[in-house]
Predict the 3D structure of the following.
Amino acid sequence: MANEKAILVDETKCTACRACQVACKQWNQNEGVETINWGSYENPPTLGSETWMRILFNEKYENSKMQWLFTKQQCMQCTDAACVDVCPSNATTYQETKLADGSVLKTVVTDPNKCIGCNYCRVACPFDVPGYSQKKKGIYRCTMCTDRVANDVNKYSVPACVKACAPGCLVFGDRDEMIARAEERVAELKQGGQAKARVYGKDEVSGLMYIYVLVDEPEAYGLPNDPSIPLGVKAWKALTKPWGAFAAGGLVIALVVNGVINARNRGLEEQYKLEE
Ligand code: SF4
Ligand code: SF4
Ligand code: SF4
């Protein structure tokens, strides 16, 4: 993956100040969402059309002591994206933006004019990221700040969340370099006694554009240990490919996918309160 850009997230350096969360909202001109005290500093409780990233406050208990494990949550910008595979109207697609230094910013984007609001992307996503917004009529997620980065004006040439991160938890650069830095950091942490230290995002779902440094199992951070694209999504893709656009709107195919994802959907409906 030479010359692709990625964001390194070294969770061992995160202080949960949430400057990144605020910067993301500010740059993308997303509105504040009314929150309630639900017994955690973590707010808003889900991602949504106005909240493209948030910091998770995971609590880990060991020997009666509580330890925070903070996680930056947003769309992972998967190389092999379930949301792209499952989209019946081809509204969600890959986008490649060439940058001034010759590298490429690879993102997954949704065209609101083509989105039919079926929410299949939401149930197929291994990271439970996108959700259709009735208010904004579309699917909204992290854009890797393509608009800032592509402009390449000095002060705007890194994503807003990276720019705002004072402790140096977030770094933007060539993906190969971000992986090398993450592996170096993991070696350092292991030497310091953090036996579970690991890189996350290098190979998961064929590679993410967010590369994490963790010191515990991914699940302790609210991340799937082994994220994968549901088999039904793969089957759907194989089935629809030869049929092209005709199959995209086909009721039969929709029912196949619906059957596969139905159980998960039920759980998610309770978990998510989609914005109006
Ligand atoms: S994290 Fe989810 S929404 Fe983002 S690209 Fe991957 S599958 Fe799509
Ligand atoms: S890259 Fe931009 S859109 Fe994505 S989380 Fe960071 S600030 Fe938000
Ligand atoms: S700005 Fe950096 S340190 Fe603060 S919450 Fe975000 S990632 Fe963590």
Summary: The two ends are 39 Å apart (CA to CA).
